[in-house]
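Q: My collaborator sent me two sequences in one message, no labels, and asked for predicted structures for both. Can we handle them in order? The first one she listed is below.
A: Yes, handling them in the order given. First sequence, followed by its structure tokens:
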Amino acid sequence: MRVAEKGNSRAQAKKIVKQLSATSPARMTIESGQNSFHYIHLEGVCFLCLAERSYPKRLAFSYLDDLQKEFLGKFRDEIPSASRPRLVR
């Protein structure tokens, strides 16, 4: 990934996260050029990954499922008092 692509991907990820709301789909894939953003939006937390467009969605969501289970298992009680990261303010 070139530097320009990396910066553009970061901006796109930030935009995706900022636009999430309670009515957003719980799971979604957003295609962007040669890449795809996959996310799971659950309990007020967004789990997001970026993969090549050819990468199987099933594997991307399997990874995100594992990530969200581990994260929520450890931090579920802390979510209500957490603040948004600076990246998405």
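Q: And the one she listed second?
A: Here it is, processed independently of the first:
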Amino acid sequence: MHNLRAHVKKWIQLSSIFSCSSKSIYMSSRVNVFEIEEEPRSRFDFKSYMINKITSINEALDSAVPLIEPIKLHEAMRYTLLSGGKRVRPIVCIAACELVGGHESTVMPTACAQEMIHSMSVMLDDLPCMDNDDFRRGKLSNHRVYGEKITLLAVRSLQALAVDHVVTATRGVPPERLVRALTEMAILTGSKGAAAGQIADLCSSGEDFNVSIEQLEHIHMQKTGTLCEGSVVSGAIIGGASEEEIEKLRKFSKCIGLMFQIVDDVLDVTKSSMELGKPAGKDVVAAKATYPRLIGIEKSRELALKLNSEAKEQLSGFDQEKAAPLIALADYIVARQN
């Protein structure tokens, strides 16, 4: 850890890509609160890459969930799905597929499915019986607009649509790859993945509840890390990755998944609600187990930087030009401001 800090060279300002719709993209840049080692300059244009990918993803999502009967249900499904966001999960899905020789058009249904799963997870997280959040991405949460009953039905519908969309919209991929990708998605979102992480998170709140750093890592790896893992690994599978490539990318995804949540923990206590687009400081109020609470803000930042370095090490054996998007995405995740 000390060596990592010794190699820190300067503050790097990364572009944060937020609030996007199928027709508009809002971009903002802020000074980063994390120090990361400066990479050699390359010709890879990360900003243009993100704009292009987000535009393609938003158009695909808009087409995947048309506003049809029952109108109210599909409105609720579209409300959160198309309300913007960083689109990190579908982008890493596409980037992993392209890294191993696949194509965006082939993996786009899987990438859309990953965003559907992410959307349904935040819709559940925001419910009064869960995290009880009224705002998401600077807008009212789904249940505040449509009510809890319709939100729950929209969650179920998005989960079902994610599977249906992969099966019916994917072209030119052998059935065994589709089955394997869907199996990964099912395992990593169910009782062995994100759902298990959510229940562990719910049970670890309160001033009197003692959580070890190992237990907290387990919670974060399941609640957040599994969705990143599912996105990266399913993209690699669709792209025809070898077993060795899949395992390297799995390790990469575990690093960036945990890193994502650690950064989230830090931002919750260092940023305002306006900057985050959701209520800030709620983890503190709920006495939730977080990295800043257990090891402090500075050590949390150091751990995120260490994970960033470890994630990029997993990509060292790949063609570095093709790996450039995932390398840049890892830096983007550790440097994000909301």
